[in-house]
Amino acid sequence: MVFVSSATTVAFVTYLIGAQIFCFYRGQTRVEYLLDIYAYNLGFLENVRQALGRRWYLVFISPFIPSPLESDGLSYRVCNVENKESKDVKYL
């Protein structure tokens, strides 16, 4: 019984981590993914910089190293719609 509950917990946590990594890669929240909103997908490295700050590579070493964000938390850069194949970008 312990093995079944442990295996279920590991499977569920693996799914949740995978879903978050997938959305982080695409520059979306889970709700934006479900609603097919991709206005903030700036490419993988730029998505990482937007989320973790200018010194994102140092954040993996220690969370105490300051890494200032490029935005103020209220406004964010959006992708250029003209360069995308699909012209019907949805916004919240």
Q: How would you describe the overall organization of this protein?
A:
It is built from four helices and no strands. With 92 residues, the protein is an all-alpha fold. It has one domain (2-83). It is flat and about 50 Å long.
Count of individual beta strands: 0
Largest sheet, in brief, is: none
Succession of helices and strands: HHHH
Q: How much is the average pLDDT?
A: 83
Number of structural domains: 1
What's the shape? flat
- Report the structural category: mainly alpha
Gyration radius over CA: 17 Å
Low-confidence stretches are: none
- Span between N and C termini? 45 Å
Provide the fold topology.
Layout: H1 2-26, H2 30-34, H3 44-52, H4 56-59
List keywords for this structure.
mainly alpha; single chain; 92 residues
In short:
The chain is mainly α and 92 residues long. The chain has helices spanning 2-26, 30-34, 44-52, 56-59.
